[in-house]
Specification:
By secondary structure, the protein is of the alpha/beta class. The chain has 17 helices and 19 strands. Helices cover 45% and strands 15% of the residues. A 7-stranded mixed β-sheet has the order 4-10-9-8-7-5-6, sandwiched between helices. Strands 13-14-17-16 form a 4-stranded antiparallel β-sheet. Strands 1-15 form a two-stranded parallel ribbon. The chain starts with a helix and ends in a 5-residue tail after the last helix. The protein binds pyridoxal-5'-phosphate.
Length: 455
């Protein structure tokens, strides 16, 4: 029998590669092809710089729960009210998940069943809106999310959607403009929270606006929920009626979460019944929107919520912001235009179209990737060229998790700059890059990453 201590000792002495091979162990025997793919993905991640703002890296304990026997359990419904037999263990799992989620977010209600962040939003929309009801949300091309009523999402088929926009000059949220628009449009739901916004979001102001027009407020904090947990960004919990998040962006397993603060017990009329908001959210989750919960996933969320209560997790969230600020200021010193003049969170949005004639977001993303630096292209607010995205989004959660700090941020901004200065754009998505520069950058990236093995 392996003792806990012995397991810890063994794990601590494994190299990053051995650690991941241990995880893949059982698979190697039965499916060599998938094993090789996982190995390739491990190597890709280990040998390149993950500057993805929408990604993170969960712990081995989270991976273990994801790969556990709980994956086999079918049980529709909620704790104590399942439609299937054999639920004593999963009831306990979900109860612990809910209580830890409430503790970590300081919430009164938590629903750990949503399969994704988008689905968490769908549940809230389904719960409080009838078809034809109005949503006011941040425009997709300015950092909003598909699930907030975008034309290309199903949400726009059933609801009437209007967007608010950031200020043309500062590229910051313009609360007066949001208020004006809310008064005119009279939405039933206002959504705040973004996929590409690097500054602090004032949830109190959004609530004030929602109150003034009698709308519900949904805060989708997918990108910043780790920071919110740690207090590195103000919390939405008691300002929004509903807060949703993906659980992978803050560093847990894939999946979604709905939490509620002081409004959890507000009454809502559903048909002829008068019930509390949280009860209604439960009912809409199942059977309204979803079927069976993923219990392996819920167990993994439970493990993750415990991690978020640790000092290590909480102090790391502040380091993530510090690293992002360092990257932003380095890039501005190098002459880059950073959207909204900097960052308060984990992401930096860079206007590459403004840096050099002919350079686009797609070109920047591709040529950086060729050199081992992984970023996202992104549309920028009020873009000049409509033909191609003009920006890139970089994020610091993963490099920070792997232990990188100020010195490494300086290396990263220098490496990025060397590539973006020298690449020769040919079209919106084609370019030429000097082979020697590419190889030199790849080698430097690999060296840097090898000193910070991913776990
Ligand atoms: C990532 C993201 C989501 C979607 O989460 P999924 O789990 O990928 O569906 C929702 N809202 C915002 C603002 C996001 O950034």
């Amino acid at each position: 029998m392996l003792t806990e201590e012995r397991i810890r000792e063994l794990l601590e002495n494994l190299s990053s590669q051995q650690y991941h091979e241990a995880i893949f162990g059982a698979l190697k025997e039965s499916d060599g092809q998938v094993y090789q793919l996982l190995k390739r993905e491990y190597e890709r991640r280990q040998n390149t710089l993950q500057l993805m703002a929408a990604e993170n890296q969960c712990s081995m304990a989270v991976l273990a729960a994801l790969g556990s026997v709980l994956q086999n359990k079918t049980a529709e419904g909620f704790v104590g009210a399942r439609m299937h037999g054999g639920c004593e263990v999963v009831d306990d799992v979900e109860s612990v998940a809910v209580s830890r989620a409430k503790e970590t977010f300081g919430a009164q209600y938590a629903n750990v069943q949503p399969h994704s962040g988008s689905q968490a939003n769908q549940i809230v929309l389904t719960a409080i809106l009838e078809s034809g009801d109005r949503i006011l949300s941040l425009a997709l091309e300015q950092g909003g999310h598909y699930s907030h009523g975008s034309r290309i999402s199903f949400t726009s088929k059933f609801f009437e959607v209007d967007n608010y926009y950031v200020d043309k000059e500062s590229l910051l949220l313009d609360y007066d403009a949001v208020r004006e628009q809310a008064v005119k449009f009279k939405p039933k739901l206002i959504i705040c929270g973004a996929s590409a916004y690097s500054r602090t979001i004032d949830f109190a102001k959004f609530r004030e606006i929602a109150e003034s027009v009698g709308a519900y407020l949904l805060a989708d904090i997918s990108h910043i929920s780790g920071l919110v947990i740690a207090g590195a960004h103000p919390s939405s919990i008691d300002y929004a009626h509903f807060t949703t998040t993906s659980t992978y962006k803050p560093g847990g397993p894939r999946g979604g979460l709905i939490v509620m603060g002081k409004d959890y017990d507000q009454r809502i009329k559903v048909g002829t019944k008068d019930i509390s908001l949280w009860e209604h959210i439960d009912k809409v989750t199942f059977p309204g929107v979803q079927g069976t919960p993923y219990f392996n996933n819920i167990a993994a969320k439970t493990v993750f919520f415990k991690e978020t209560l640790s000092d290590e997790y909480r102090s790391r969230q502040f380091k993530i912001v510090k690293n992002a600020k360092r990257l932003a200021s380095n890039l501005m010193d190098l002459g880059y235009e950073v959207v909204a003049g900097g960052t308060d969170n984990h992401m930096v949005l860079i206007d590459v179209a403004n840096l050099r004639q002919g350079l686009t977001g797609p070109t920047a993303q591709k040529c950086l990737e060729e050199c081992g630096i992984i970023v996202d292209m992104i549309h920028l607010p009020y873009e000049k060229s409509p033909s191609a995205a003009g920006g890139i989004r970089i994020g610091t959660p993963i490099v920070t998790k792997n232990g990188m700090g100020a010195k490494e941020m300086d290396s990263i901004s220098a490496l990025m700059d060397a590539v973006l200065r020298k690449v020769e754009p040919i079209s919106d998505s084609e370019y030429r890059i000097d082979g020697a520069l590419r190889e030199k950058t790849q080698t430097k990236v690999k060296d840097l990453c090898s000193r910070f093995g991913m776990r």
